[in-house]
Design goal:
The protein has 358 residues and is mainly beta. It has three helices and 18 strands. Bound molecules: zinc ion (3 copies).
Length: 358
């Protein structure tokens, strides 16, 4: 984020003795003549007007005011001697600065109602147009604090019941799985399936930033997208700025600044490259005890990929079929059709253990 200055605006201070609002540059109250005390802060004026007069700009940029260590008079930051008593300002206290006073107000502050006669005055007035009473600062509306979220007890009870039901269902499920039954069964039929993946060269589509694309790729289409944010402008970037805000300069003025950054755009493209990848699968199946790998005829540039095998054995348990599946060919070879086995079957009807029949 880069800070951008939009210029200076004059602040105001309110006299603690007569409640009159005074322009930031004025050192003694325009109504009662009291000097501005050190602890009376500057606040945002009724209107944020960019300072254009030479004198105002000089004051705004002269740094935080210095208070005379001898007579407490407010002096500009560039002064070396007190304007009132001539005392040396070297040991004087500087006014605090750098605080964010508020966001830029685009319109004028709301009207002020006179406390004494009830007349409505424009916010820029410092004295009532009817009775001449000083018009202090009106409180600006503050954002309401969010109310804390409380849990509804009704929902908590329902939630607890639902949780208990889920726990119950889960434990039933596990019980079902662990309870097993022993059965004598006969192998009624068997089948096998063996597959080999064929690998070949073919185009694969990817997408990436234009400068990340491999040289041998074929680019099909590109579109402009936000690639990142930067504090500096570049070839293809667009500036975005936040709401301007006022930073107290300690001199009766505030600098209006804006935090800005650049959205950097770039081409994001779809492209394809030729890569070795699966282009097909060949299978062989059978219902005998002689599983074979399928015969392959490869074209030029093709090669064999991953092999896989699955074997299914169907047992007859009291007239019902129970299927067992394995990927181990040695295990498969034991289950010749017609042979007898002792099966452990769980509550879901799955085989969990197989032993030769006694
Ligand atoms: Zn006053
Ligand atoms: Zn002095
Ligand atoms: Zn009035």
């Amino acid at each position: 984020m880069a800070k951008q200055s939009l210029g200076y605006v004059e602040l105001e201070w309110t006299c603690p003795f007569c409640n009159t609002r005074n322009p930031g540059r004025v050192k003694v109250c325009t109504n009662c003549g009291a000097p501005q005390p050190k602890d009376v802060k500057f606040h945002q004026a009724a209107e944020d007007k960019i300072v254009e007069d030479k004198e105002g700009l000089e004051m705004a940029q002269s740094g935080p005011d210095i208070y005379c260590p001898f007579c407490n008079t407010r002096n500009p930051g560039t002064a070396v001697k007190c304007s009132r008593c001539g005392g040396d300002l070297t040991g004087g206290e500087k006014r605090e600065s750098g605080e964010v006073i508020g966001a830029q107000q685009t319109g004028r502050a709301p009207d002020i109602t006179c406390e004494y006669c009830g007349t409505v005055n424009p916010a820029t007035n410092t004295k009532c147009k009817n009775c001449g009473s000083p018009l202090g600062v009106t409180a600006r509306p503050q954002p309401a604090a969010a109310a804390p979220v409380k849990m509804n007890p009704k929902f908590m009870i329902i939630g607890t019941i639902v949780l208990l039901l889920i726990c119950g269902a889960l434990s039933m499920f596990f019980l079902q799985g662990t309870r097993t039954e022993s059965n004598i069964a006969r192998v009624s039929n068997v089948n096998w399936k063996r597959s080999i993946v064929i690998m070949g060269y073919a185009p694969v589509t990817y997408s990436n930033w234009i400068d990340q694309i491999p040289q041998d790729a074929e680019v099909s289409s590109c579109s402009e997208r936000e690639r990142g944010r930067s504090s500096f402008p570049s070839g293809n970037s667009q500036q975005v700025c936040g709401t301007p805000y006022l930073v107290d300069q300690g001199s009766g003025f505030a600098e209006m600044v804006q935090d800005c950054e650049y959205i950097v755009y770039d081409d994001y493209c779809q492209y394809s490259v030729i890569e070795l990848q699966p282009v097909g699968v060949i299978n062989d199946t059978g219902t005998d005890m002689n599983p074979l790998w399928p015969e392959t005829r490869l074209q030029q540039d093709q090669q064999l990929g991953e092999r896989s095998e699955t074997y299914q054995i169907t047992f007859n348990v009291d007239g019902k079929d129970v299927v067992y599946e394995t990927t181990n060919p040695d295990e498969y070879m034991q289950f010749t059709p017609g042979s007898s086995w002792e099966l452990e079957i769980n509550g879901f009807g799955s085989i969990v253990d197989i032993q030769p029949a006694p």
